[in-house]
């Protein structure tokens, strides 16, 4: 059976001729009164009252909605709200009239997240029992060479993690008793004052973690913690193509917690390679050649991640030109392969012998192609 709706003016305790200012004042006064944290013993009722007030205010604070309500009562404004009637999260448009009221409590967070955010802060905040905590994650850094990254690798990792204490099965000891700090409620209350009065804030008890109970005789193996550190070794398959900063997650291999294990996160770090620089899936290497080699062309040996490879050097190649060796790079994470980019650099000798000087001078006079004029860099 649907509840009979109370008259909006009655809800706010104002007369039918009340000014907007009077309506606003009445709403703010009552909203404070029915703040759930001020009513820790009957939060549900306070929440209902708060919603009722807000609905009344939503209508009476708006000239058009108020006119419709004055004309035809609740039926007159039923179209103003979404299906199912007034919903604070959806239909309340006056959050700004509340944020200054509750702002100091919530550090201004309510305003930014709108009515839904304010609602969550008001009604699902402190005072609830904490859920059984999941164990923490473990981060392990793994340094890999480019060769290992290029082909993928299986590595063993050893780390220490919390395991459930076998002695007490994670209970932390024998027997239970009510927590002396919170008297078994799992909550502690803190008084805080703000300009409109004293507030009671409710938080999970730090002593029992919100459980309300503690063990009577703490386990001497784990000293009441319910868990113990132990070494664990795992084989981890690292796929080809990973890069520095990538994480390989190993789900449910982290620390034990009553709410389940955390994860192990393997963080990849690439070791600097003595020859190659990595550009995505491509590898870049610099290969010096002599002037004669560059002018005449031929075969040259270039290093790759799997030994050296002979490649063709086109005759007349200029210094700095790049030869692409297809498929000699890093495998993509999703198949395919990068290339190796061989940057050819003409090596000019820093010392020349007597005989070389003569030959070079002859070469200079015999040159068919002159050295080009100065030009704008490409
Ligand atoms: Zn134990
Ligand atoms: Zn407690």
Describe this structure in words.
With 378 residues, the protein is of the alpha+beta class. The protein folds into four domains: 8-123, Helix Hairpins; 128-172 and 219-272, Urease metallochaperone UreE, N-terminal domain (HSP40/DNAj peptide-binding domain); 174-218, no CATH class; 277-364, Urease metallochaperone UreE, N-terminal domain (HSP40/DNAj peptide-binding domain). The chain is 28% helix and 29% strand. The protein has eleven helices and 15 strands. It has helices at residues 8-12, 20-33, 43-60, 63-77, 88-91, 96-106, 109-112, 114-123, 146-151, 291-296, 354-366; strands at residues 138-144, 153-164, 173-178, 187-194, 197-204, 213-218, 227-238, 247-250, 264-270, 277-279, 282-290, 298-304, 307-313, 322-325, 340-347. Strands 10-11-15-14 form a four-stranded mixed β-sheet. It has a three-stranded mixed β-sheet with strand order 1-9-8. The chain has a two-stranded antiparallel sheet with strand order 2-7. A hairpin with a 2-residue loop joins strand 10 and strand 11. Helix 2 (20-33) runs antiparallel to helix 3 (43-60) and helix 2 packs parallel to helix 6. The chain is elongated, with a radius of gyration of 37 Å. The relative contact order is 0.10. Bound molecules: zinc ion (2 copies). One zinc ion is lined by residues 179, 181-182, 186, 205, 207-208, 212.
């Amino acid at each position: 059976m649907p509840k009979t709706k109370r008259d909006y003016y009655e809800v706010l305790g104002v007369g039918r001729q009340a000014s907007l200012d009077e309506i606003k004042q009445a709403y703010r006064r009552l909203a404070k009164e029915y703040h759930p944290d001020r009513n820790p013993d009957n939060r549900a009722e306070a929440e209902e009252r708060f919603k009722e007030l807000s609905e009344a205010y939503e209508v009476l604070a708006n000239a058009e909605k108020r006119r419709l309500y004055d004309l035809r009562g609740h039926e007159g404004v039923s179209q103003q709200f979404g299906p199912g009637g007034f919903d604070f999260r959806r239909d309340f448009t006056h959050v700004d009239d509340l944020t200054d009221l509750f702002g100091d409590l919530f550090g201004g967070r309510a305003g930014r997240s709108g009515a839904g955010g304010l609602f969550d802060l008001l009604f699902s905040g402190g005072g609830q029992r904490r859920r059984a905590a999941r164990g923490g994650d473990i981060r392990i850094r793994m340094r890999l060479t480019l060769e290992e990254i290029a082909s993928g690798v299986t590595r063993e990792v050893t780390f220490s993690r919390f395991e459930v204490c076998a002695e007490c099965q994670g209970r932390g000891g024998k027997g239970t008793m009510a927590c002396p700090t919170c008297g078994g409620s799992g909550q502690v209350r803190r008084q805080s004052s703000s300009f409109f009065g004293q507030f009671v804030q409710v938080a999970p008890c730090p002593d029992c973690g919100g459980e309300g109970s503690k063990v009577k005789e703490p386990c001497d193996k784990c000293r009441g913690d319910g868990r113990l550190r132990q070494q664990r070794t795992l084989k981890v398959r690292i796929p080809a193509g990973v890069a520095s900063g990538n994480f390989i997650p190993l789900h449910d291999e982290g620390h034990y917690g009553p709410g389940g294990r955390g994860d192990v996160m393997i963080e990849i770090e690439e070791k600097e390679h003595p020859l190659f620089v990595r550009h995505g899936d491509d590898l870049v290497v610099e290969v010096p050649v002599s002037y004669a080699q560059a002018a005449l062309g031929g075969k040259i040996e270039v290093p790759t991640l799997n030994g050296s490879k002979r490649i063709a050097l086109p005759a007349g190649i200029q210094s700095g030109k790049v030869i692409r060796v297809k498929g000699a790079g890093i495998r993509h994470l999703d198949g395919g392969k990068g290339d190796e980019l061989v940057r050819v650099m003409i090596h000019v000798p820093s010392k020349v012998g007597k005989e070389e000087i003569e030959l070079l001078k002859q070469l200079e006079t015999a040159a068919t192609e002159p050295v080009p004029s100065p030009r704008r860099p490409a």
